[in-house]
Amino acid sequence: MRVFDFLVFYPMASFKKREVTDFTWQTPLERATILAAISSTFLLMSGLEIICFLVFRINILDIYYVVFLFLAGGIVMVFLFNYIYFKRKRYEYIISSQYKSFKFSVTAGVIICFLVFIFSILATVIIGAIQYNLLKN
User: Fold this and answer.
1) Residue among 61, 39, 36 at smallest CA distance from 48
2) Which residue, 101, 107, 128, 129, has most beta carbons within 10 Å?
3) Averaged pLDDT for residues 113-122
């Protein structure tokens, strides 16, 4: 859970610091949870690709309806993250003194979150391409 907290905490701190107000989403916490949910969805998709390849010897990106399942999973992840960080007040716990705080600066944390975001997207594409080449032979 600490990884997800990291992915929410630093973008949230960055959004609060910069007073970004030109986005569609209402609060900085909503923006941070959506970004964390997108990264998590792509990482989950990468893991699912690997499992399906190792167990079933299929590339799930070749199945046309997987895109709809991926989008539905992303929407579910956004609602799940919003539930955890809003309704269950996880973000308030993260910023409280009970939680062992993160040691990075806001800039370093945001850079790491951005790299995780880019890596998660690239991992999904690269794993799919590798599987395509392996199954083609």
Assistant:
1) 61
2) 128
3) 96
